[in-house]
Amino acid sequence: MMKEKVAIVKNMGKAFPTGEGDFWALKHINLQFERGEFCGLVGPSGSGKTTLLNILGSLDKPSEGEVEVLGKQVHRLNHKQASKLRAAKLGFIFQTYNLLPVYNVYENIEFPLLLLKMDGAKRDRMVRDAIEWVGLEDKIKSRPNQLSGGQCQRVAIARAMVKRPELVLADEPTANLDSENSYMILDTMQNLNKELGTTFIFSTHDQKVISYLRRIITLTDGEVSSDDIQISS
Questions:
Q1: What is the tens place of the pLDDT at every residue in 188-197?
Q2: How far is CA 149 from CA 65, 71, 100, 135, in A?
Q3: In whole angstroms, what is the distance from residue 193 CA to residue 166 CA?
Q4: Residue 92 domain-assigned (yes or no)
Q5: Phi, psi at residue 20, to the nearest 5°?
Q6: What is the pTM of this model?
Q7: pLDDT, averaged in runs of 10, over the chain (233 residues)
Q8: How many structural domains compose the chain?
Q9: Which domain does 192 fall in, by range?
Q10: What CATH number does residue 144 fall under?
């Protein structure tokens, strides 16, 4: 039985203007992502992985080709339509956490649901579920400056997952963490992938992250150089 596709990329390229003409950060990209995948874009800095992740997240548009995400043609969306797609169906996890410093853990996680104008009782239930997923029940009233780096990233995961998005995009999520916290974060995301069926796409060059991936897409100089399924040990 064929799995549902959450993203389809066809003959996609992305160019950035420079003083000497266009620089093609991505070239001839053809990829498909199925529902429930736990996969990553890997490669050295400058290989195009973050650019591709941003296009999949409708934060940027391709210069050529087609990109369909959750049934929406990203290359055709205007700013308002792209924002609506992100708010309703996508979750983002960044290496810098991007937590609101004046909000506590509960309020940071609740924020995406406020944008969706969700009923208060339902919103509270979803926030508390997300806090439980990442094991921060005892930090619910703490602000970011009272948390460790690993705890801040767990808040960021809960915030990305609270609305139960269909697709989560994670850009170097372990870059600022030590090994112990990195593995804790990766275990959390892997469990959420299995329990909720959420699709995760990472951008990374961290070997710890790569060891968790079930599919590894390697980018070299803006092109896909390999696309391999990794067998779990």
A1: 999 999 999 9
A2: 39, 36, 14, 15
A3: 10
A4: yes
A5: -110, 25
A6: 0.94
A7: 87 93 96 97 93 97 97 95 94 92 97 90 96 96 96 95 96 91 93 94 94 97 95 61
A8: 1
A9: 35-55+88-229
A10: 3.40.50.300
Cα–Cα distance for residue pair 161/110, rounded to 1 Å: 11
CA angle 156, 149, 232 (to 5 degrees): 70
Contacts of 1 (CB under 8 A, 6+ apart): none
Residue 81, domain member (yes or no): no
What would the two tokens of residue 191 be? 């469990």
Beta-carbon contacts of 119 under 8 Å, excluding residues fewer than 6 positions away, are none
Q: At what angle do helices 179-196 and 149-161 cross, to 10 degrees?
A: 20
Residues 6 or more apart in contact with residue 126 via CB below 8 angstroms: 113, 118, 162, 163, 164
Q: What is the pLDDT of residues 97-153, one digit of tens each?
A: 999 999 999 999 999 999 888 889 999 999 999 999 999 999 999 999 999 999 999
Question: Does residue 200 fall inside a structural domain?
Answer: yes
d(CA 10, CA 65): 6
Residue 195 domain-assigned?
Answer: yes
